[in-house]
Amino acid sequence: MEQDFEIVKKYIEESTEKIVELETLLTSYPALAPESGGQGEIKKVEALEKWLKTQGITELQRFDAPDKRVESGIRPNLVATIPGKDDSLRLWVMAHTDVVPVGELSLWDTNPWIVVKKDGRLYGRGVEDNQQGLVAGVFAALAFVANGITPAYTVKLLFVADEEVGSDYGIKFLLKEHNLFGKEDLILIPDGGDAKGETIEVAEKNLMWLKVSVHGKQTHGSRPDEGNNAALAGCHLAIKINALESVFNKRDELFEPPYSTFQPTKKEANVPNINTIPGEDVFSMDCRILPCYSLDQIRQEVNRCVLEVEKEFGVKVEIEEVQAVESPATPTDAPVVLKLKEAIQKVRGVQARPIGIGGGTVGAYLRKAGFNAVVWSRMDETAHQPNEYTIIENLVNDSLVIAYMMMEK
Fold it and tell me: Active-site residues: which are they?
């Protein structure tokens, strides 16, 4: 095993030019969802397929989700398979191909769609989120293919669509329409982490995004007695929902912060002038809830708050759940956690620890479906920012960690 890993290690460490080549290729295709004004991931995935075939990874299969909003009519999900000695248990390395828009272009120092290499970093939209994980997984697998080494387990590189805008055409589509995963499979999602690679995400807070529409009665600013102030009712409702932080008040030190949060966020425009009391008001809430509470418990309390405000202010309230996700945690002693911890220790000399996060990843959908998944990478977390970058050393070392997980022990 040690001799084979030295061969694999040498291949990966000597592949930095090819790593930059693949990052550059992928970045040149702006894989934006239609919600972001794009045509999806098809051109990027087709380029990736072609590149993989030229490198000797030829067992490729597409699972395309129909989407009439894009010209191609599909959102592609791609699986690359590298057969292993044991096919009863597969190692999945899962990355997403879509990216977010560049945002304010003037804040970028370079063209976001052309990779720039500088001071050991690669700059461009998507180079870290999620191409760092994608490329690291690819080169871990290529190290075996190029050197004629069979991995311990069958390796599945999964490249999913639509992660940035809800995953309806990505992992949620795959879980609903295709039976890809086995209960014993090891699933690694290299799509989040920290600057030292010390944390393995095994749990997420339950997520609930609410769009709250308050319907009152518009009137002149000087005659509140003749109307029902939707903005005032909305403010009271936002405060009531925020106060649920003291109702669902358990703490779990696995998470930062270690408690549930109910925060008002987006506020939509109502009336254009100061001297009109609005009859309509719309705001949003971002709720991140510890897994010990179910979303049904949250819904019950939110409904109680709504009824109280409706009665007090004479308004009607509509609640839309823009997103609602709940999932169990991956046990900290699950095989995928233990194997990843061992790989990080052997390759990086780092004692990694399991954590929970408040953000959302595709790992939640897998865990809810009954599959143990972990999220890990070593990164500076520049995702969605101007001048997004990835560190080349991180690309190489992440690839080495993933490759170690593929080795026969």
Answer: 98, 163
